[in-house]
Design goal:
Blueprint lengths: L3 H5 L4 H30 L2 H10 L3 H15 L2 H24 L4 H29 L3 H33 L1 H22 L12 H18 L3 H26 L5 H19 L4 H6 L1 H7 L13 H14 L3 H10 L6 H29 L2 H20 L4 H11 L5 H5 L1
Length: about 425
């Protein structure tokens, strides 16, 4: 496997990587800022988890609908435009928070912001597949992006609570605004304007037809469907600690650090799994997915918060299985379908994450946050185990081999 430095030396990738890292940092600071404001006003675990869910669920519809749009527009246009619109949404959030407006206005702005973000996510994935013709360099770049996401999420979550307490809610939102503005400027300068490829349906009927065909291709594919199903069922184990960390910590000040613990664990896990060849990485997907929810079961015994953070850290290490899942999913998708397939898959994943937040919040509300995390972990473990009974090991090995044969192998693998 090539090194991270080899990936960063690919022309144009370094500024794109830095912009993405800064944007992630701002996003997660803003997310925990809004969640903290809602909990402070309501003192409700369910309301806090609902805030996190609201920040994700709109992307289900946004990503689904923008799929064919991404396939029709140059990804540079989609990326820059989505950054500008989201910057305007953050300005609205700042105004709403400063004026202590009703919570429904916060939720409305979150809905718009996250729905528009679907275009940026799908376009960024398409852009990277064009940027890295060497697919092992591409796999390394995906690992680096995942590492950056987890690292910056940990920083954002850990700092978000402190910023709210020390500087007020405006500080986190201003950081998020600056990241969107800077990102739009850098992407406008660095990203090459390339034409779109492949046949597209015309008009509204063609648009809906593209969505229907993409959904059919995704559901029928023996590899893509299984990878997406694993991502969806694992969301409950990944999302429950984040959803219930603030209510569980109460006024102790540990909320942001607990939310950051599994994320920090994922950073170490990604570093370790990235040392392996792509075949070894994919062979570890199911064992790691089964291991991920196990440490969370101990939350039911209400250990000290420092010990709890350590348990969640260990759980987070196993979340690194999502790196080979995402890389393999991308490379076995036909190039002309990537925009709509990535968008639909992202919509399913985001829906699963949002439902996980809501489910964890509901269980925590009707039991307590400690047992809520443990119950969600147990359900997650059972679902992953059921999926593992029919996991396509041989087909996955063959798909990985074909995908990494060369830059054009993705279309053959599909």
């Amino acid at each position: 496997m090539p090194s991270y430095a080899d990936a960063l030396r690919v022309r144009g990738y370094l500024p794109i990587f830095l912009v993405g890292a800064l944007s992630l940092w701002g996003d997660y600071i803003a997310r925990v800022t809004i969640a903290g404001i809602v909990f402070e006003r309501t003192r409700s675990p369910l309301a806090t988890a609902t805030t996190l869910a609201v920040s994700l669920l709109p992307a289900v519809f946004g990503r689904s609908l923008v799929g064919p749009v991404v396939d029709r527009l140059p990804y540079k246009v989609a990326l820059v435009g989505s950054h500008v619109v989201r910057a305007l949404c953050v300005i609205g959030l700042i105004i709403v928070v400063v004026r202590a407006a009703p919570l429904w206005s916060v939720f409305v702005l979150l809905v718009v912001l996250e729905a528009v973000g679907g275009a940026a996510t799908a376009s960024s994935m398409v852009m990277l597949t064009d940027l890295f013709e060497d697919r092992r360099l591409y796999a390394r770049a995906i690992g680096l992006n995942a590492l950056s996401e987890q690292f910056n999420q940990a920083i954002g979550l850990a700092m978000g609570g402190g910023l709210v307490a020390l500087l007020g809610p405006r500080a986190g939102l201003l950081i998020d605004l600056a990241s969107f503005v800077l990102g739009a400027v850098v992407l406008a300068v660095v990203v090459e304007l390339r034409p779109v490829h492949g046949d597209r349906g015309s008009g509204v009927r063609g648009f809906l037809g593209d969505l229907r065909r993409a959904a059919g291709d995704l559901v029928r594919h023996p590899i893509l469907a299984r990878l997406l199903a694993l991502s969806a069922v694992a969301a409950l184990g990944v999302g429950a600690p984040e959803a219930l960390a603030i209510p569980l910590a109460g006024s102790s000040g540990w909320g942001g650090l607990l939310m950051a613990a599994p994320v920090a664990g994922a950073v170490l896990g990604i570093l370790l799994i990235s040392r392996s060849d792509v075949h070894r990485q994919n062979a570890l997907v199911m064992p790691l997915a089964l291991a991920m929810p196990v440490p969370l079961l101990a939350t039911a015994f209400q250990p000290p918060l420092a010990a709890l953070a350590a348990l969640w850290f260990v759980s987070g290490m196993s979340q690194c299985f999502m790196v080979p899942v995402q890389t393999t999913f991308t490379l076995v998708t036909a190039p002309e379908l990537r925009g709509r397939i990535f968008s639909l898959a992202g919509a399913v994943s985001v829906a699963a994450a949002g439902l996980a937040y809501l489910g964890a919040g509901w269980v925590g509300q009707h039991t307590d946050p400690w047992r809520g995390v443990a119950i969600c972990a147990g359900i997650c473990l059972g679902l992953v185990a059921l999926l593992g009974l029919t996991w396509p090991h041989r087909r996955l090995r063959n798909a990985v081999t074909r995908a990494y044969d060369g830059p054009s192998s993705a279309s053959r693998a599909a």
